[in-house]
Fold this sequence. Notes:
Layout lengths: L7 E8 L10 H15 L3 E6 L3 E8 L5 H16 L13 E5 L4 H9 L1 H4 L5 H12 L11
Helix pairs in contact: 1-2
Amino acid sequence: MPHTLSRNLVHCVFSTKGRLNLIREPEVLWKHLGAIAKSKGIPLVAAGGTANHVHLLIALSPTMTLSNAIQNLKAHSSRWMKEDVPRFTWQEGYGAFSVSESNREAVMHYIATQAEHHQKWTYEQEFMTLVRKSGVEYDPRYLCG
């Protein structure tokens, strides 16, 4: 598509099912997510998280849907994680929030400092804050499923 120009930065967040601390080596998972993203043509700008969730900043291409990108990342990383943690699974769903180019560095810093951030905030508190700030309408019964 030589005449199609786009820059769609998306901050994606998803957790392990039940927010179990099953990610023993988060940095290794982030690198693996980078390899998956590269193989699927998903530009991964930043990756971070903790033992129970992941934050990704992706630059969504105009030829791939957000749901397809997340499905690829979650499915392939889940299969890989199950090699060491057989009961590993990601939660259903995800959060995805648009990011302007002017906020890219701030979001990258936020993703890089997840360990410090979660000394004060739980995943649920963090996710609720992201949802509220983005203006997404939601049903609280299904928010952190």
